[in-house]
Amino acid sequence: MDNNQDELLKVYPIKKAYPQQSQKTEIKKEQQENYATGPVPEKKSVILIIFLTIITLGVYPFFWFLGKKEELKNLRTKTKPYSSLIPSIGIFIWFLFFVSLVTSAILIPPEKITEFFGDKAVAIEAKLLEIQMKMPIEYFSTIQKTVDISLIATIILLVIILISLSFKTKKIIDEALANKGSKTKLSIFYTLIYNLFYIQYEINRVEEDKEENPRKAPLITTIILAIFLISLATLIILIEEGII
Q1: How far is CA 32 from CA 108, 190, 197, in A?
Q2: Which terminus has fewer CB within 10 Å in the chain: N or C?
Q3: Higher pLDDT residue, 200 or 8?
Q4: Cβ atoms within 10 A of the Cβ of 186, count?
Q5: For residue 86, which of 145, 163, 25 has the smallest C-alpha distance?
Q6: How far is CA 193 from the centre of its chain?
């Protein structure tokens, strides 16, 4: 038995094998040390973030990016985080959007209210007429057009800011993953479509050391959304054609 072990040691020397393993450990340790200098973006429920976005009428994502700025700064990357001013501007533009939305609702012609709410619209119509009567008639049309333009402009600006912040964050996380020793990069497509929701999903995967695993959740979500949109479009066409 001892002779067999001696023969095996001659063929596979232990002294040569262990330094290689030790070297790999040292490399991994060095990569981990280069990964961050402080608290990094933490795991958080994507469903919770979606819920908070809905109940805050869409303003929460800007607070999310505002809160993540310092955590992203702790990642040792050449790309520096965005300025806190950018999400702050997003919050301000969202406020303008909300004001425009409320104003637009006030300026809705009373007959349109009747179309949507029927007999229940009487009280709403009376209140709207009372508010509208206080506005200068000669400026009413101009105010309505200005509000409509403001709504469209604020929506476009909000989308641009969100996409800009998302791709900046993606670049930082990509570099941080490379420093960690991972070859994984965040998806451009999912970043564009899902913004912070996808980024948080990837942050969760990194926290669980699953960044190398296949991305199942975004793929399944995309398929479900595609089926839903196609079904909805088909339903609308059938209703317009009078088939349903």
Answers
A1: 58, 27, 26
A2: N
A3: 200
A4: 23
A5: 163
A6: 8
| Residue appearing with tokens 């709403």 | 124
Whether residue 88 has pLDDT greater than 80: yes
Q: Give 209: exposed, middle or buried? Use CB within 10 Å, 0-12, 13-18, 19+.
A: exposed
Mean of pLDDT values over 216-227: 93
Asked whether the beta carbons of 85 and 96 are under 8 A apart, the reply is: no
Provide CB contacts within 8 A for 52, sequence distance 6+: 60
